[in-house]
Design brief:
Blueprint lengths: L1 E7 L5 E7 L2 H11 L4 H6 L2 E7 L2 H15 L23 E5 L11 H20 L4
Antiparallel strand pairs: 1-2, 1-3, 3-4
Length: about 130
């Protein structure tokens, strides 16, 4: 049995994929002896995993995810090629929630719509007056 795992940041973006045969030990190693920049570990909000029957399966899926999504902190396999083979992406299970993941939200949309309406009004006025 083996695992692929991923680190997700506050915006819900996957920033790192990895594989292991002992997920508890590997995650502990990451956050104690970590080989990634501290910025990576500080930005992790949740860790998710998938279970695979063999280590080879986990390795194939790890490379597939890295090649397909090019996460920020994976250096290996960041080719410009996108996989052309069809692999079924399994469901991710929560390993650990560190902080809340908050998808990026636009603030003050009322103001934005007022600006858009004003620009539209000015454009129509200019067209009506023959200024363009």
């Amino acid at each position: 049995m083996a695992y692929t795992y991923r680190f997700v940041n506050a915006r819900g973006e996957v920033i790192y994929y990895g594989k292991t045969v002992n997920i508890d030990r590997r995650i502990t190693d990451h956050f104690t002896k970590g080989h990634l920049p501290q910025e990576c570990y500080r930005s992790v909000c949740k860790i998710e995993y998938q279970k695979h029957k063999t280590e080879s399966d986990a390795l194939i899926m790890e490379q597939f995810y890295i090649s397909k999504y090019s996460p920020k902190y994976n250096k290996q396999g960041q080719s410009r090629d996108i996989p052309t083979i069809a692999l079924e992406e399994g469901k991710w299970k929560l390993y650990k929630q560190i902080r809340e993941v908050k998808p990026l939200q636009v603030q003050n949309t009322g103001f934005i719509w007022k600006v858009v309406a004003f620009i539209y009004f000015v454009a129509m006025l200019c067209k009506l007056l023959g200024l363009y």
